[in-house]
Amino acid sequence: MRKAVRVLPLGRLRDVLHGRQLGHPLHPVLVQVPMGAWLSSAVLDLVPGAGRYARVLVGVGTLAALPAALAGWTDWAEQHEQQMRTGLVHAAANAGAVSLFGASFVVRGRRPMTGRALGFGGLVCAGVGGFVGGHLAYRQSAGANKAEPVPHLVAPGWHRLGPVDAFEPGVPQRLMLGEVPLLIVRDEDGTVAALADRCSHLSGPLSEGDIAEGCVVCPWHGSVFRLSDGAPVRGPATAPQPSFETRTEADGILAVRLPDAG
């Protein structure tokens, strides 16, 4: 299933579905429309004479679930195995909700009571899917920015790392700054870039990735970050890498500083 999702010809839409332009996953945003429409339809099903409007909301929610599901599957294919297993349960519950609400929309004109019953069943499935999705996001940390703790682990000010000449140009190297691993890349002209080494997507080691056109490619899921400022150029990562300022001191030692540290 992962292979099938990865080979979908989505092109640039893939990054949009990941939410790279937003700076966080798009899937939770898109989910608000079907959930809101379905919950509102259930409320209207309890109001006498509002069946026509409830059916409209059921239809809106069912249609809106399709792009939400596509975004969810796109994220799912770039997760750890444990997260993927939980994600399948999440997807199965949501598929049940879509099926029941779809059936509810179809039969409401002829059998309104059956349509309402199917709608309430769909709402239960959607609730289960939401519960599992919450576990996936908050307990298993799917979609969270794995580089967020870095500014809180680095002390303010400049930190000396080692002689600049020790860094081979164009070759990514990993150094520890206290508890934080750093990616150090020295350019041919002597410019040095320093980023947090653990990928913001799923903590992949950027220092083991390829360097090309001023960017580093994560070896785990292919996220691309600009070396100059850590900005994500291609997903699945949506959050930037913490980027360190660098300078060469009078004795030839490389020093780094994280502006937001502390």
General description of the model:
Helix 3 packs antiparallel against helix 6 (112-139) and helix 4 runs antiparallel to helix 5 (81-107). With 262 residues, the chain is an alpha+beta fold. The model has no long low-confidence stretch (mean pLDDT 96). The protein folds into 2 domains: 2-139; 150-257, Rieske Iron-sulfur Protein. The chain has helices at residues 2-6, 13-18, 27-45, 51-76, 81-107, 112-139, 150-153, and strands spanning 159-163, 173-177, 180-186, 192-196, 210-212, 215-217, 224-226, 232-234, 243-248, 253-257.
How would you concisely characterize the structure shown here?
By secondary structure, the chain is α+β, with helices and mostly antiparallel strands.
Give the SSE layout.
Elements: H1 2-6, H2 13-18, H3 27-45, H4 51-76, H5 81-107, H6 112-139, H7 150-153, E1 159-163, E2 173-177, E3 180-186, E4 192-196, E5 210-212, E6 215-217, E7 224-226, E8 232-234, E9 243-248, E10 253-257
Antiparallel strand pairs: 1-10, 2-3, 3-4, 4-9, 5-6, 6-7, 7-8, 9-10
Helix pairs in contact: 3-4, 3-6, 4-5, 5-6
Strand portion, in percent?
15-25%
Structural class: alpha+beta
Number of strands: 10
Global mean pLDDT: 96
Number of contiguous helices: 7
User: What portion of residues is helical?
Assistant: 40-55%
What is the domain tally?
Answer: 2
**Rounded Rg:** 24 Å
Contiguous low-pLDDT stretches (5 residues minimum) are: none
Largest sheet: 6 strands, antiparallel
- Placed side by side, the strands forming the largest sheet appear as 1-10-9-4-3-2
Order of helices and strands: HHHHHHHEEEEEEEEEE
Amino-to-carboxy terminus distance: 43 Å
- Outline: elongated
